[in-house]
Design goal:
The chain is an alpha+beta fold. It has 15 helices and eight strands.
Length: 379
């Protein structure tokens, strides 16, 4: 047993030492021998099971680990990295940045989550902050600095995982919105609302992305996004990193052809006035988006809700969910139905009307009759 008794300043103390391969890897002093023995046995058990971590490695600040964690995120998409950095810098570092890893407790994390909600931040935002903290601590575990993620057991804020239901327009309302928008860019409303594109996918289209076989369509291969910090536009891969082709309904064919004109393949299909790609903010100002959505009685409509509109229009027209999945670029039809299944409720009742009734409606009971005709009441 590696527990030694010694006296210091007239007080008896007990030093527990942990050795691995003949080398001392940890030591700790206790006032009571039983505590020293218990700690030594626990550390030895962890060494034997491969669960032991050097206590010194857990004494570094969370900031030191977060810096390495952010660098490890280099393969993530740019917008994701920017969100990670903002979550850390604005919401996590002020509370835990200088704290040693081993000093952070589940109770402290729970208190921090509650304080964020009290400060008026939305449950979904706080859920994202907590997820970022969990990821940093998981990185610390992988780096051998700690064994337990103290944020893992912290309860998510109520409503933090609730999905915001998108607003969707009818096809008539979609055309009304396009008419209410101003200028030459107004018809982008129809491209978004009938094609099911995300804004970044529309902005990333080039003239050479038009397809003609087996029918008219657009090949989505890239997205143009705005940096969350500077607003600078940059080209990125699609959300799921898989290209897809979306069909063009008849109303969209002349719009696409007019914008393509005689452009070279690498030219932006829906170009900005100065020739570069379109930014969502500039487009909204150009078409007078705020005034247009108020004019049609939809003051809270977002540009992304035009994608919800496309899902509604296609599903309402009887398109198979697998078709809509491919148009929207979802990973599976099940995901499409989870997101938009509520939009086809009317289809359920239309189908119900087509089922049954082939043998005639049930006969009505006569006045004062309590049992169907031909049946006798048993005694």
């Amino acid at each position: 047993m590696s527990v030694q008794r010694y006296t210091k300043g007239g007080q008896v103390r007990y030093r527990a030492r942990i050795k691995s391969h003949g080398r001392e890897v940890a030591t700790r002093v206790f006032d009571r021998k039983s505590d020293a023995v218990a700690w030594e046995q626990d550390q030895t058990r962890k060494l034997r099971l491969g669960e032991w971590t050097d206590p010194k490695r857990g004494r570094v600040s969370l900031s030191a680990v977060a810096i390495d964690w952010l660098e490890s995120r280099s393969s993530a998409k740019r917008r994701t990295r920017e969100a990670d950095e903002a979550d850390w810098r604005l919401h996590i570092a002020p509370r835990f940045g200088n704290a040693p890893l081993v000093s952070i407790t589940s109770a402290e994390v729970s208190s921090w989550v509650g304080a964020q909600i009290t400060a008026g931040r939305s449950p979904s935002s706080v859920t994202r902050y907590l997820a970022t903290l969990r990821s940093i601590l998981n990185y610390a575990i992988a780096d051998g600095r700690m064994t337990v993620n103290v944020a893992a057991a912290v309860k998510l804020p109520s409503g933090g995982q609730a999905r915001r239901d998108g607003i969707h327009l009818t096809e008539d309302q979609l055309h009304d919105l396009a008419d209410a928008c101003q200028g030459t860019y107004a018809e982008m409303v129809l491209v978004l609302g009938l094609g099911g594109l995300r804004w970044g996918e529309l902005a990333g289209l080039q003239a050479g992305d038009r397809v003609y076989v087996p029918g008219r369509g657009l090949r989505l291969q890239r997205a143009v996004l705005a940096s969350g910090g500077s607003g600078e536009l940059f080209v990125d891969t699609l959300k799921n990193k898989r290209a897809r082709t979306v069909p063009l309904v008849d109303d969209l064919v002349p719009i696409v052809d007019r914008w393509a004109g005689d452009k070279v393949n690498a030219a932006w299909l829906f170009h900005a006035p100065q020739g570069g790609p379109l930014s969502e903010g500039n487009w909204k100002r150009s078409v007078r988006w705020s005034a247009a959505i108020k004019a049609i009685g939809m003051p809270k409509l977002r540009v992304h809700d035009l994608r919800h509109t496309a899902a509604s229009v296609w599903l309402g027209a009887g398109a198979d969910p697998k078709v809509v999945q491919r148009i929207l670029g979802h990973a599976s039809a099940a995901m499409t139905m989870d997101l938009y299944g509520h939009l086809i409720d009317q289809n359920l009742w239309d189908a119900a009307k087509r089922i049954g009734g082939t043998r005639g409606a049930p006969r009505e009971l006569g006045p004062g009759t309590t049992e169907p005709p031909g049946e006798e009441t048993g005694s």
